[in-house]
Specification:
Layout: H1 5-16, E1 21-32, E2 43-48, E3 51-57, E4 63-71, E5 75-77, E6 83-85, E7 101-107, E8 110-115, E9 127-136
Parallel strand pairs: 1-9
Antiparallel strand pairs: 1-4, 2-3, 2-7, 5-6, 7-8
Length: 144
Amino acid sequence: MFRSLPLLFAFSLILCGCSYQYDITIVGLLLDAETKSPRVGTTVELIRHKTTEVTTTSDLSGRWTIKFSVGDFMFSPDDDGQYWMDDSPSYSQMPDAKFPFRIRVTSDSNSHVFPLPPIPAPEGSNSVTASMGLAIPLHSKTDG
């Protein structure tokens, strides 16, 4: 009985498709593009595909924080062997990007959609923090 326990444990891991979970924190600063002053009380959302996963609001300094978790399957190595969240697109590639996560900023009925910053896989822990600064016009046409 006891000799088959390791085999049974390994089989159960394969069956349930277990993956390691990473906790991601994105800390941001939201400024008005023209005045460079903080955007206070602006809604910031983490969108996965077309679903809102997390919502927060910028504070008096224009700062905001979003926390979420992803499985290790979301990370792939680059040419140097460093693991990054899959398909982290550059800003110029955003309209054609296949990456499921976006940041949506909504204020005064205007909405702006941005890709996530490049997020490396955590080393030595299960969490990582990334930061991004966003400057949006006070009055503009609605995007995305």
